[in-house]
Design goal:
CATH class: Alpha Beta
Organism: Cognatishimia activa
CATH architecture: 2-Layer Sandwich
Order of helices and strands: EHHEEHHEHH
Structural class: alpha+beta
GO molecular function: sequence-specific DNA binding; transposase activity
Number of domains: 1
Distance between the termini: 41 Å
GO biological process, one term: DNA transposition
Shape: globular
Radius of gyration: 16 Å
Protein name: Transposase
Strand order of the largest sheet: 2-3-1-4
Number of strands: 4
Helix content: 25-40%
């Protein structure tokens, strides 16, 4: 079993990619309100700043900045994923899903990248905003309704 070593950088700004187990699913946009509620509840308990967020049917990209003195993004993701999952029927599960009491909705891991500097930050912000265009959902990033681009501007 891999031993994941995550940086413990307090107050870090981090880019994430989080995906559903079923990459043909549209669950994230079908229940965007459930995802929003899971994020809101988690932020009430464990605050973080949302720098950018885009939700596509089967995955999402976001950039968070953690508060000073806090490096625990893993717990935040665990809470968001579990709160969202509880709203939905159990998906196909392996023995390891059952042993961990997972519902089989999410890919177990997610990808994270600690932002290094302003250029890296700007690159990942653009990546979030243009992702719906890349996947062919819209022609202009501003037209995708499940993105913070309209809240924060290009």
């Amino acid at each position: 079993m891999p031993n994941y070593l995550r940086p413990k950088q307090s107050g870090a700004t981090i880019f994430f990619t989080v995906a559903l187990a079923d990459r043909s699913s549209q669950l994230l946009i079908d229940d965007i309100q459930g995802l929003r509620e899971a994020v809101i509840k988690t932020r009430q308990e464990r605050p973080f700043k949302i720098d950018a967020w885009v939700v596509l049917p089967d995955h999402m990209h976001c950039i968070w900045t953690l508060p000073a003195g806090d490096s625990d993004y893993a717990t935040r993701w665990r809470l968001i994923k579990s709160r969202f999952s509880r709203r939905h029927p159990v998906g196909p599960r392996s023995k390891s899903h059952m042993a961990r009491n997972e519902r089989g909705i999410w890919q177990r891991r997610y990808w994270e990248h600690h932002i290094r500097d302003r250029e890296d930050y700007d690159t990942h912000i653009r990546y979030c905003w243009v992702n719906p265009v890349k996947h062919g959902y819209v022609e202009n990033p501003e037209d995708w309704p499940f993105s913070t681009i309209n809240a924060f501007g290009p």
